[in-house]
Amino acid sequence: MADSEGAESDGGGSSQASGGAGVDPTDISKMSEKDQKKWNKNLLAWRMFIDFIFRHVAIVTFKYNNFERDNMQQFLAAVDKAELLRTKIKLKKGETASITSFRALRDSTGVLQDQQAYREADLILQLVDLCGRMRCLGMIGGGFYKSLKKGNVRGLDNIKKSLDFWKGFCLRGYDYGELQFKNADVETFSAVERKHLSWSTAIRTAINMSQQFLKRASDATGLPLIAADPSSIQKFMRASEYAVATKIQELLMARDTADSSAGISAAALLGGKGGRS
Question: Which residue stretches belong to region Disordered (predicted)?
């Protein structure tokens, strides 16, 4: 889905394969009445977490899909232009003209705007915004994980692993320039694509890991990604965004049925170069 062609995954595996003992969401009859009440109370909170995070992850997936289809080549050219312009100005101590972090990517829009290259600057800011959305959602995911841990659910190790990978690919200051492309024929990429596709790789991997986190949380709690009454998320989404949400759930469930250790092809939802897997 957004496994990206370049980034490392956490190795896949069943969402309940590690994390030690915990509550089996399919059989709470073994609990005491007190523990059942506590579990049911937790379910209400977890339902809200899943609704909120899944809705926004689906929206980011939709937005990124459109961005990659319509603007990726122009974005890559904009980053290349920004780097060229940065070679001609005085940079802060320790900075280089190369743009390898999301912080530098955001700051590079200033030199483009100084040259009245407003379209190029806007394209860069659009991708930076998607990264910012995923970073904020990751923080909320951290709160969800803490709640799951208190609730003693199964598979906590893998849930945490997905969360850590998700957050790791949204860091502002991390150098993403060294990301390697996997499951892709790099020789078919243009020079600009090879130089700057690490940005789409990072975003796609963050999206993929967030979806994996949600699936593992769903398995651990017994709550579907989309509730029986979908209005809790549908009323806040456009029809096209909700269609992506249902597709994500469908593909994640299909993955579980086919082979829980296999990654979902990015091409299933995200087209273009980054969709190769």
Answer: 1-33
